[in-house]
Amino acid sequence: MQIYNTLTRRKETFEPQHPGKVGLYACGVTVYDHCHLGHARSCVAFEVMVRHLRRRGYEVTWVRNYTDIDDKIIRRAHETHTSWEAVAERYISSFQEDMAALGIPPAQIEPKATEHIPGMLEIIRILVDKGFAYQGAPGGDVYFRVGKFPGYGKLSGQSLEDIQAGARIEIDPHKEHPLDFVLWKASKPGEPAWPSPWGPGRPGWHIECSAMSMKYLGETLDLHGGGLDLIFPHHENELAQSEAATGKPFVRYWLHHGLLTIDQEKMSKSLGNFFTIKEVLARFHPEVVRFFLINSHYRSPLDFSDAALGEAEAALLRLYSTLGRLEDLRKHYPGVRGPAPADFTAAALTAEEIDRLLTLPERFAGAMDDDFNTAQALGYMFEAVRLTNRLLEHPAAEPGYVALLAEVRHNLVDLGYVLNLLQAEPQEMLAALRQKGAELKISPQEIERLITERAEARTNKDWARADEIRKELSEMDITLEDTPQGTTWRVKG
RNA sequence: GGCGGCAUAGCCAAGAGGUAAGGCAACGGUCUGCAAAACCGUUAUUCACCGGUUCGAAUCCGGUUGCCGCCUCCA
Predict the structure, then answer these.
(1) Based on the domain organization, do A156 and A76 belong to the same domain?
(2) Same structural domain for residues A19 and A146?
(3) φ/ψ (deg, to 5) at A271
């Protein structure tokens, strides 16, 4: 497998420290508000990586944290006249609802910062003992001494001078260097506080990830990642404090995904240009959202728009349509399974095309092995779908025909599992997608009644009345489809 | 200002030295009582622009332009 490593800015062959085992730490969310779609992108990206690694036979330990204490949480508690604990608890629940709705299973370990204070204090103690950290004033903040760590800046590719040149940081008289960052933040009266050798306070942002990741995954992690926007300062600081404390490499492969944008601008709370996961899911099927999120490579920027989600919906519909036809076929031949006979030939496809259809799993895996290239993997699936549709258009009587399609069906669903797509019952999904969750201008009962009336008219060859009903429904954005199994309807797309 | 990234058809998007995947949309055809769906076909001699390396360049190198991200909390 090849994985792009932010530290070296290259794709590298992936080799975990311990054969067959992989530890992944993905930076989670700060729980002070509902999550937006950018957070969903992050979670889906790591989920898919984990699924593919497991498919490749690795035993993966996936850790995703909650930052459940920080300034924004405290501020939110003040604003809403409640406790910081209540704020954290509320938005952890909200996050879990979103994950469940998107079908993302929980990580193996989901640690909370406030439950790991002793581990953070231990790292800070070591850093102070080694001279990498100092307290600015008695009872005050404890800082990391950036100038003492030679590798500072190696992750973001900048020198200390580079960073300082553009720094908009206020000069803090207690800091030795403007870029020294807080490890332990002294609490003001009334603020949440934990006891420490340096006085009551709370952890700085970066130290929690070092403490929690190393506790669960060891001093050197295989994989650690988050959004591109976390490279500096968050991951740079994590790297510095962790390596300063242990003297060992902190992370073997740093993974950073691209950001979700709106009109080419980063979706963010501060810009106010965000949609929460809940808002998006109210309008689009969760699987459509997932498809949208993985239809481009995880490191690319991804622009959100209704049109883009609409395209994702149409594309997913195409996948499920074929799957539905394959499912119908399976019901007609319940005993037949793949694999296809090696010597099977079909009029509709050349030998090369049949081979291509059957080697989908290899090509799919190859794409995923190449830095989790979900876009290419999906491209291969669509190619297989096109070939499959061609076969379905030209039914053959041979048993090999059914066996081949049974194998294709199995492959599509099996590969879909890696992307957490195509796991639903096709007919149910098609019905859900066709109705788009949109407000209907007419009740389904009324539609059914008109369909029945039209069926009667058609039996009597009363084409005028049949067309009239079609037109009537069409004006209410309902499209009728006459199939051998009867007439179905869908909301116009 | 410093650091980094991206520019591929109407839109979205793979490809990273060997002659442009895939999706959406559009148009033509097959099918259909009419449609829809599906299938077939068409839609980039060309990958922002200018140079260079090479037998050969979206792919490598240099420069230009435009957009984005980070340098403050951010997935």
Answers:
(1) yes
(2) yes
(3) -80, -20
pLDDT class of A168 with cuts at 50, 70, 90: low
Contact in structure between A145 and A180 (CB atoms under 8 Å): yes
CATH of the domain at A233: 3.40.50.620
What pLDDT digit, counting tens, does each position of A425-441 carry? 998 998 888 776 556 78
**Nucleotide nearest A227, from its CA to each C1':** B75
| Nucleotides of strand B under 7 angstroms from a protein beta carbon | 1-6, 11-15, 21-25, 32-40, 67-75
A376 touches strand B (CB under 7 A): yes
Is A382 in the same domain as A469? no
The answer to whether the C-beta of A378 is closer than 7 A to strand B is yes
- pLDDT score, position A279: 95
**What is the spatial distance, in angstroms and rounded to an integer, between the CA atom of A482 and the C1' atom of B32?**
9
DSSP per residue, A297-365: -TTS-EEE-HHHHHHHHHHHHHHHHHHHHHHHHHHHSTT---PPPTT---SSS-HHHHHHHHTHHHHHH
d(CA A360, CA A398): 22
Q: Does the C-beta of A227 come within 7 A of strand B?
A: yes
pTM for this entry: 0.94
Indicate whether A406 and A453 sit together in one domain.
no
A123 CB less than 7 Å from any atom of strand B: no
Distance A68 CA to B28 C1' (A): 60
